[in-house]
Design a protein that fits this description.
Layout lengths: L1 E5 L3 H12 L3 E6 L19 E2 L7 E2 L4 H10 L2 H11 L3 E4 L2 E4 L4 H14 L3 E4 L1 E8 L7 E9 L2 E9 L1 E4 L14 H8 L5 E6 L3 E3 L4 H4 L3 E10 L2 E12 L3 E3 L1 H15 L4 E6 L9 H11 L5 H4 L6 H10 L14 H12 L1 E8 L7 E5 L17 E3 L7 E2 L4 H18 L1
Parallel strand pairs: 1-2, 1-11, 2-7, 11-20
Antiparallel strand pairs: 3-6, 4-21, 5-6, 8-9, 9-10, 12-19, 13-16, 13-18, 14-15, 14-17, 15-16, 17-18
């Protein structure tokens, strides 16, 4: 069985290894000069392989969750860890997040490269696939055209295979070669594509205050509102940039925010900068602070509660200045107004960050067009894996898990 795997990222590498382990003759095509460039960037260079808390609620879109649920039954985080341990990688668990023991993505890539080499998989780098034709009439089911460069310029080559596994990735981190070419190839083969959009990314906000608080990092509870309806809540470290908000809790619901913006809905994120103080206790806390503190100004009264830059902004939005005289109980309503902003500060969102600054891509081939082994329902013996499928996960190893899961499942099936 001759199998072409197109794309040398996480999904393509795992598919190549799985297919070779099941007896196939595998050729792996990669448009870059080496495989796995994007893998080196995952987990801030530490490569969060998978997560021990694997659940369908960690994946989007909602329409894909039944499909994901069945996939996870055959490839859990335990199977994922076992796959890498069999290749020689030692892993470790950090609060459910699974990393290589040395927390270096380069070691994961080296082990995968070694596995490709040791299995005799033919690796063709600097090959950009420009055309795939099924049932080409040349004793093989697929004819593949590749554009490759040499010292004399570009050259087009033609190859023939029994089966093709397409793993070209999405559109995030374009500098690694993910430019959406796979979507165009799939459209040409008759597949529909859910419009790709950035996911796991920062959000851009309206208002002229961001530069004043740029660089602030603080713990917060964030609520995502779409058309004034609370659709998601996340907690963690919020990062404020000169254009909007970032950080893992923002990344976790950026997909939902992007979908809402695409539908022309109004989107805002409300931040609670004192998540440890229950809303129902806010007035009592304010009253006790008024009673206990002997201070002369509003700046002194709110000193130390939250980040100083953020506090100055909230005072300004409340119509106050830090040097204004504080008159105790007579200023109670002003104090409560400030506390309401501390407990509910709105960031009005107008867009997501770009693909160049997104960790993954939402959108792609809908799961309704693929089988459980990631084979196409439209083209026989074509497999579609990784970010090309309309499945994306939250931060925490979920997207890489899907890459390994889809790659291994497709590689095994294609080799049969």
């Amino acid at each position: 069985m001759r199998i072409a795997v197109i794309g040398g990222g996480a999904a393509g590498l795992s598919a190549s290894i799985a297919a070779a382990d099941n007896g196939a003759e595998v050729t792996l095509f990669e448009r870059n000069d080496r495989v796995g460039k994007k893998l080196l960037l995952t987990g801030n260079g530490r490569c969060n392989l998978t997560n021990l808390s694997m659940d369908t609620t960690c994946y989007y879109p909602f329409e894909s969750r039944d499909f994901v649920r069945e996939e996870l039954k055959s490839f859990s985080s335990v199977e994922c860890i076992s796959f890498f341990e069999n290749l020689g990688l030692i892993t470790k668990d950090k609060n459910g997040y699974v990393y290589p023991h040395n927390e270096q993505a380069s070691s994961v890539l080296d082990i995968l490269r070694n596995a490709v080499s040791n299995r005799g998989i033919e690796l063709k780098t600097q090959h950009e696939i420009i055309d795939i034709k099924p049932d080409c009439g040349n004793k093989r089911l697929f004819g593949i055209s590749a554009k490759t460069g040499n010292e004399n310029g570009e050259e087009e080559k033609r190859y023939y295979f029994d089966r093709v596994i397409l793993a070209t990735g999405g559109m995030s981190y374009k500098k690694t070669g993910s430019d959406g070419n796979g979507y165009q190839l799939l459209k040409g083969l008759g597949h529909s594509i859910v419009k790709p959009m950035p996911a796991l990314c920062a959000l851009k906000g309206e208002g002229g205050f961001y530069k004043a608080v740029s660089g602030v990092r603080c713990e917060a509870e964030l609520s995502l509102f779409v058309n004034d309806q609370n659709v998601c809540r996340e907690s963690g470290e919020l990062q404020i940039t000169d254009y909007g908000i970032s950080g893992i809790p923002v990344f976790q619901f950026s997909r939902l925010a992007g979908e809402a913006l695409k539908d022309k809905s109004t989107v805002k994120v409300t931040a609670d900068f004192l998540p440890g103080l229950p809303a129902e206790d806010m007035e009592a806390f304010a009253d006790s602070r008024i009673k206990a503190l002997r201070v002369k100004s509003f700046g002194e009264f709110f000193e130390g509660l939250i980040n100083k830059k953020l506090m100055l902004l909230i005072l300004k939005k409340s119509g106050l200045k830090p040097e204004m005289a504080f008159e105790g109980a007579r200023d109670r309503e002003r104090v409560l107004k400030v506390f309401r902003l501390i407990k509910g500060f709105d960031f009005v969102i107008n867009s997501t960050n770009s693909f160049d600054n997104a960790q993954t891509t939402a959108g792609g081939v809908p799961v309704a067009e693929i089988n459980a082994d990631y084979s196409s329902k439209i083209i026989s013996w074509l497999y579609i894996i990784g970010e090309l499928v309309d499945i994306d996960g939250k931060c925490g190893g979920y997207n890489l898990h899907h890459a390994w899961m889809s790659g291994i499942r497709a590689g095994k099936s294609a080799a049969v």
